[in-house]
Amino acid sequence: MPAVPRAASVWPSDPPDCAWRAACGAPVDPAVMSRATFPAAARLLRPTEFAAGLAGKRVARGAYFVVTSARVTPDADGAGSKPIARLGLIIAKRFAQRASTRNALKRVLREAFRARRLELEAADYVVRLHRRIEPCSLSVLKSAARAEADTHFARVVRP
């Protein structure tokens, strides 16, 4: 059976061959390799963190998503590290029935946030799906979601 070449990535933030080059120890051009990562520290995990993020002000609203943000204050004792932008996602089953749809939306939103994370103000951002997803192909949905997420995060970027 002949080998079929892999399809190229459609995401603008995926540099070509970076993962492959890093895996085999080949030199990677720093201009191509992105420093924007998505570590565990940049994620909202606890219900209290989500509640605080949702209690903040609404910074963007679009066709599918509402973005709210709450400023992060440094710890009172000063022992904490520097505050960073963190992301929480709320993708309800009643608005996106299929698990594959919910997972695709979460992947797209995390990638959009990852690409802008270093430019964003230190705050807790909660992105919530607020409208039912109409039946369409996943590729169309992911393109629409990425365009909307990029618009929302561009609006939030520090001046």
Compact description:
The protein is α+β, with helices and mostly antiparallel strands and 159 residues long.
Set down the secondary structure blueprint.
Layout: H1 18-23, H2 47-55, E1 57-61, E2 65-71, E3 86-90, H3 99-116, E4 123-129, H4 138-156
Parallel strand pairs: 3-4
Antiparallel strand pairs: 1-2, 2-4
Helix pairs in contact: 3-4
Specify the CATH class: Alpha Beta
Biggest β-sheet strands, sense, barrel: 4 strands, mixed
Using only C-alpha atoms, the radius of gyration works out to 18 Å
Level-2 CATH architecture: 2-Layer Sandwich
Write the H/E string, N to C: HHEEEHEH
Helical stretch tally: 4
The strand count comes to: 4
Taking pLDDT < 50 over at least 5 consecutive residues as the criterion, the unreliable ranges are 28-33
Cα distance spanning the termini = 54 Å
What is the domain tally? Answer: 1
Structural class: alpha+beta
The percentage helix is 25-40%
Tell me the overall shape: globular
The strands making up the biggest β-sheet line up spatially as 1-2-4-3
Mean pLDDT: 79
Give the CATH topology.
Answer: Ribosomal Protein S5, domain 2
Beta-strand portion reads: 15-25%
Structure, described:
There is one protein chain. By secondary structure, this protein is of the alpha+beta class. The chain has a single domain (36-156), classed as Ribosomal Protein S5, domain 2 (2-Layer Sandwich), CATH 3.30.230. The chain contains four helices and four strands, in the order H-H-E-E-E-H-E-H. The protein has helices spanning 18-23, 47-55, 99-116, 138-156, and strands at residues 57-61, 65-71, 86-90, 123-129. The protein has a four-stranded mixed beta sheet. The radius of gyration is 18 Å and the shape is globular.
